[in-house]
Amino acid sequence: MHKRWFAWIAGRSLFCLLLLGACFADAAESQDTAKFGGDYTGTIGPLVVKVHIVRTADGTLSATLDSPNQGAAGIPCTNVTLNGTVLSFDVPSVNGSFKGTIADHGDAIDGAWTQGNPIALKLGRDTFVAANKPSAVDGIWLGTLNAGGQRLRLQLKVRSDATGRESCEVDSLDQHAYGLPCADVSFVGQAFSFTIPSVKGSWQGTLSTDGNTLTGTWKQLGEAPLNLERQAAAIAASPASAPRYDEAMPPVSAADMHAVLRSDFKDALTSGSLAPKTHAGVSIGVLRNGERSVFAFGTARPDSLFEIGSITKTFTGLMFAQLLEQGKVKLDEPLRELLPPGTVQKPVGDEILLVDLVTQHSGLPRMPDNFKPADRQNPYVDYRAATLYEFLGKIGVQRPASPEFLYSNLGFGVLGQALANRAGVTYPQLLARLVTEPLCMKETVTALSTPQQSRFIEGYTATYQPAHSWEFDVLAGAGAIRSTASDMLIYLDAQLHPEHACKTAAASPAAKSLAASIERTHEPRAEAQPGRRIGFAWMYEPSTGIYLHNGGTGGYSSLAMFDPKEDFAVVVLVNRGPGADGGIVDRLGLHIGQRLRGKRALKIE
After folding, report:
1. Residues facing 161 on adjacent strands
2. CB 144 within 8 Å of CB 154
């Protein structure tokens, strides 16, 4: 669970952050392409894509690409080709390509983005025509959002077109995320509001009488004041630098990984992102072909306990699978039937099923609108069952006609509570009964014992400030678990080889159904983020064969991934919350995975 206020989809980015550049190709002319060129926008799932195409007088084409949600600008293209009305180009840095047909006299390009599997991508020309007289709210605005120990500068650009319609976009300057498009923009009287669909956030407030201040509230994970001041000019984007890599070497074994990483991370541990001044503690577990290794860097020890955040969702998914195998729930059972009687009414149309919750296709929002923590440093501790049921009673459990993937902490919190209701126990008790006891995972808990508390490493925000631990109540199924790298390797070993599960618990009903339950959680059931599918919480990348999930709380980040074909698994636990760059844990996981595959590895600096 990422406590990033401007958080985009967890896991590795669809695009890498690259140097500005351009590429060239010869172009053919046609009637439909006579006015072709300029700026085009489209979306790949939740990600906005902007393509900038320039045509010179001699017909030469150049193109660059932006991924605003991910802070990537000026991504260079190669092999830009216009053959009749068919445009194609490659983006070699991310192993991607686009091919589409130009239509509407050059105002649209209908095609597909390919990065593993083809994904529909329709690009439309930016045809904005400015109003003759700007509205009172048009202009550049700047404010600072205090979020989870971070101070994020947000730049708002507002403009109105010739019809008087307002539009805007947001730059999260400290996260290098530019051009996040607004929706539902409204300016009536002095009241101004908008949403940012890509981050599931919204702002609402009022314009001052002198027209120089917007006073209001940002809503995403709860609420926070966000006031914006008018600016004379925009702060220019500062593109992130191109990634650097350590040279490739033969695939590294589990036994050798510690020594290899000690060398790879030497600079980072001395003066970079893992230096003593950052208080960084990293615990890593690697499993390959049955050989395992657990080690640590910085302030962590191999047996340090960390919050694992949203990796908890995969445990909740396995609990669901266990109850399915034991015949205590059904895949297509309505959520309503696992809630206290009278909580919600049966809807007229389709209703939310348990399978919808576990695959993030329920239509439920990321968080409930009555989530208003008294302590923003420990936001989940006071959200109780009564408050959850009040929210569900208000919005109901009707399922959208065609629900899309929507990452929802609420959804998994509801699922965990619903399963506990059916079993007649608490979520922690059900977790122990169905998962941790059958696997002999003695260090994986929601509440620490006194001896464990002494090994619970202190967490820090992305800006290196001490962070409060997160305690959960009714939404435990979304992110309540703490664990060690060693215990998480037991869990990941079971994903690769269920037969390796704990022998001392072999006679229990939960142990007997464990292998079939684990296999069930891996089955991809629905589309997720671009290039990924989702099983029971686990994200699956068809292009790599990897299953993964990451997590983040106020002071901790985590990543778990495994590859059944290559027979390896990795867990990375860090005592730092996700930050402006998306958090170091994903970069560490990517580096280790590349070392396991014998490829050049993203440099950790």
Report:
1. 130
2. yes
Is residue 204 classed as helix, strand or coil in its secondary structure? strand
CB contact set of 210 (below 8 Å; sequence gap of 6+) = none
Domain boundaries, the chain: 24-125, 139-231, 254-329+407-602
Distance between the two ends of the chain, CA-based, in angstroms?
A: 25
Both structure tokens of 576: 């730092």
Give Cβ neighbours of residue 219 (< 8 Å, ≥ 6 apart): 201, 202, 203, 204, 369
CA angle 543, 572, 48 (to 5 degrees): 45
The 3-state secondary structure of 47-82, one letter per residue: EEEEEEEEECCCCCEEEEEEEHHHCEEEEECEEEEE
In the numeric block, which tokens belong to residue 204? 């609402």
Asked if residues 483 and 441 have their Cβ atoms less than 8 Å apart, the reply is: yes
C-alpha dist (Å) from residue 490 to 291, 315, 602: 12, 13, 27
Q: Is 312 helix (H, G, I), strand (E, B) or coil?
A: helix
User: Helix crossing, 409-423 with 312-325: angle to 10°?
Assistant: 40
Half-sphere exposure of 38 (CA within 13 A, CB side): 18
24-125 fold:
Lipocalin (2.40.128)
CB 547 within 8 A of CB 540: yes
Phi, then psi, of 364 in degrees rounded to 5 = -70, 145
293: β partners: 286
pLDDT tens, position by position, 460-485: 988 889 999 999 999 999 999 999 99
- Give the whole-angstrom CA distance, residue 478 versus residue 62: 45
Model confidence at 265: pLDDT above 80? yes
Q: Which residues contact 81 (CB under 8 A, 6 or more apart)?
A: 25, 26, 27, 87, 88, 89
Conformational region of residue 360, where left means phi above 0, alpha means psi within -120 to 50, and beta covers everything else: left
CATH topology of domain 139-231: Lipocalin (2.40.128)
Residue 284 reports pLDDT greater than 90:
yes
**CATH number for the domain running over 254-329+407-602:** 3.40.710.10
For residue 536, CA distances in Å to 305, 320, 321, 547 come to 25, 8, 8, 11
pTM above 0.85, yes or no: no
DSSP string, 245-302: EEPP-SPPPHHHHHHHHHHHTHHHHHHSTTSGGGT-EEEEEEEETTEEEEEEEET--T
Per CATH, 24-125 and 139-231 having the same topology is answered yes
Among 367, 412, 10, 405, smallest CA distance to 200 is for 367
Contacts of 351 (CB under 8 A, 6+ apart): 334, 335, 336, 397, 398, 399
The SS3 call for residue 163 is coil
Chain segment 399-450, per-residue pLDDT in tens: 998 888 988 999 999 999 999 999 999 999 999 999 999 999 999 999 999 9
**Residue predicted with more confidence, 75 or 568:** 568
Chain centroid, CA 565 distance in Å: 25
